[in-house]
Every structure is written in C-alpha cells, then in structure tokens.
Specification:
Helix content: 55-70%
Largest sheet: none
Structural class: mainly alpha
Low-confidence stretches: none
Radius of gyration: 28 Å
Order of helices and strands: HHHHH
Distance between the termini: 84 Å
Mean pLDDT: 81
Length: 143
C-alpha cells in the first residue's frame, strides 16, 4: 500500500509534464496550417523596403520571363523595354477614392461572371470596363 501511494504523485507529475508537451504539439506537423496569429509579429519583408530600384528590377525580370515563355510557346517575344516603359508611365485607371479591397472583390466577381458567360456561349465582357462601371454604380448608390 505504501508503494502504491508513493508512486501515484510521481506518476501524476510525469503524466502532466508529458501531456503538456503533447498538447502543445497538437496541430503542429507536416500538414499543419499556419495563420497570421501563429507567426511572430516582428517579421518583415526586407526586400519590400528596397524602394523603386528593386521594384524596377523585379518588373524587368517578370517581363523578361514573360517574353521567354511566349517565345518558348512559339509566339512573338515581348518587347521588354517598351512594355517596361509603358508600365512605369501608365496611370492607374481606378479612381483614387475607391477602396483597393472593394475593387479587387468586384474584379473577382466580373471574372467569375465572364467564366459563366463563356460556358453559356456568350461573349465575355471587357473586365476593366465592367469593373469601372460597377464601381461607378456603387458610388452612385449613396446619392
């Protein structure tokens, strides 16, 4: 009886300490999903702080890759310099008072509508024009 009562606290302590570690590891593994709240809050993207120079370098790299892919498919290669200049001088088409999230959501809806139209055998809409039209309509709802 003394041995049983002496080992119960030791077994209980061992179980609690072992179970705590096992409980902390639940949901962590090869197939675990990490949410923003799981990540350390002080992580930053050091490349994003590079400024205009790194932005232009990345744009040029993307255009060169696009040109390479077009050439590999047998299409005419893209004029990288002309496209690069056009992208840097192009003004944004969306009015500045529109929320980016709203505009992106409207764009996703228009793309989905276009996919439905194509399945139905109808002509697809011009995505940019349709997004602008719907954003104008949304602005006029409050008036």
């Amino acid at each position: 009886m003394i041995v049983v009562f002496a080992t119960i606290p030791i077994a209980l302590l061992t179980f609690v300490l072992g179970a705590r570690k096992a409980l902390d590891e639940v949901g962590k593994g090869q197939f675990a999903v990490e949410f923003e709240s799981d990540l350390p809050s002080k992580l930053t993207d050091s490349d994003a702080e590079g400024g205009a120079e790194s932005r232009e370098t990345e744009i040029r790299q993307l255009l060169e890759a696009k040109s390479y892919r077009q050439e590999a498919r047998g299409e005419a290669p893209l004029d990288v310099d002309a496209e690069f200049d056009r992208l840097l001088t192009e003004e944004p088409r969306r009015p500045s008072g529109i929320d980016r999230g709203l505009a992106e959501e409207v764009r996703q809806l228009v793309v989905a509508r276009n996919e439905r139209r194509v399945r139905q055998g109808k002509d697809p809409l011009d995505v940019d024009r349709e997004v602008e039209r719907q954003l104008r309509e949304l602005e006029n709802l409050g008036q």
